[in-house]
Amino acid sequence: MALTNWMGAFGRAQALDLSNDLERGYESALLIQSIELEHYNDRPVRPELDLRIPRSAQAQLLRRFRAALEVCRQSVQTLQTHRGELAGQEIRQFQLIESVVARYAASRDPLPAISRSPEVLPRSLIGVVDQVRRQLDPEAEANVVAGFRRRRDSTLVSLRILLLLILVPVLVQQISRTYVFSPLVDRFAPDNAFLTYPKPKLEEKAVEKLRLFQAEIEFDALLNGNPLPSRDELQKQLASKAQSLKDEADLESTHAIKNVLADLGGLAGFVCVCLFGRRDLQVLRGFLDELVYGLSDSAKAFGIILFTDIFVGFHSPEGWTVLLDGVAHHLGLPAQENFIMLFIATFPVVLATVFKYWIFRYLNRVSPSSVATLHNMNGGG
């Protein structure tokens, strides 16, 4: 039993290594493609050319290119023996890495040509032939089983780290607030003024409640046909109500301090999960990439339109207003209308700009058909 558990742990570790190598190689290949597109007019990188950028920036750019190319070569060497275990999006990622490495295969001696030489056969036809060859391979069944186990382990690791990223901060926030920060704040709040700092918003609410309480007393007296309370009786009732309102305001004031401290505890828990699960986060990123890019073009376009309409659409200001009011109330801060309007006028615009830049730089190269579908679903606008 122990030997079986040890072998299973070894297999999961090997699956994580393969996923990490594929992810690192894929990111490096995308980096090289972005360098080609930005600085070399979508042609191979030529170190002897002088770009229209400072020499120090060009030297740094070439260092990044060489480092990314070396990572791609290492990924190809590592994953070549496990090629039969790849499937779906992983195959496409590995083919992209191979195409980048093949483009610079002879770059250590002569420099690559200024333009890419045409291929003898279409790449899609070569892919079909390669797929048939892999299916006829005697070890195809073993490779398929090994690939299934690796993808299963990657899925389990991704779900585990995703649950930890959600549950650990929430549990730490709730437990620390209930059993740690609440007793401490309640104990030291009467002796420390900064724990119950005055809030004009709470004072305004207390005054409004006191005014409403006085009106209720007079209304009940007139409704029941009783004489109005004397000045001394009314002052006594108002003083008692004012004291209860003050205690209620002080308690609500301490809630903000408890929320801030508990949120910091939850943030610390989230950071700890990220630090101790860095390898699992890489697997999660690859899993999400395969999940998202495995969708159809229409599904991708639908998700993009849904996201943009919610956060940067014409009806999003109401949602941002509710969200900011809730955050301000949670932290015990007054909801400033001017700040909210300024935030709504700037942040969604910045978010929309970043999103469009991501579509142009990344999605347009990885899935151009999704961009075309998105353009058609938006009415060509």
TrEMBL record:
It is a multi-pass membrane protein. It is found in: Cell inner membrane; Membrane. The keyword Transport applies. Keywords: Cell inner membrane, Cell membrane, Hydrogen ion transport, Ion transport, Membrane, Transmembrane, Transmembrane helix, Transport. The keyword Cell membrane applies. Signal peptide: none annotated. GO terms for cellular component: plasma membrane. Its main location: membrane. The chain crosses the membrane at residues 157-176, 260-277, 298-316, 339-359. Required for H(+) efflux immediately after light irradiation to form a rapid H(+) concentration gradient across the thylakoid membranes. Together with PxcL, contributes to transient H(+) uptake following dark to light transition. PANTHER family: CHLOROPLAST ENVELOPE MEMBRANE PROTEIN, CHLOROPLAST ENVELOPE MEMBRANE PROTEIN-RELATED. NCBIfam families: PRK02507.1-4 (NF002705). Belongs to the CemA family. This is Proton extrusion protein PxcA. It comes from Cyanobium usitatum str. Tous.
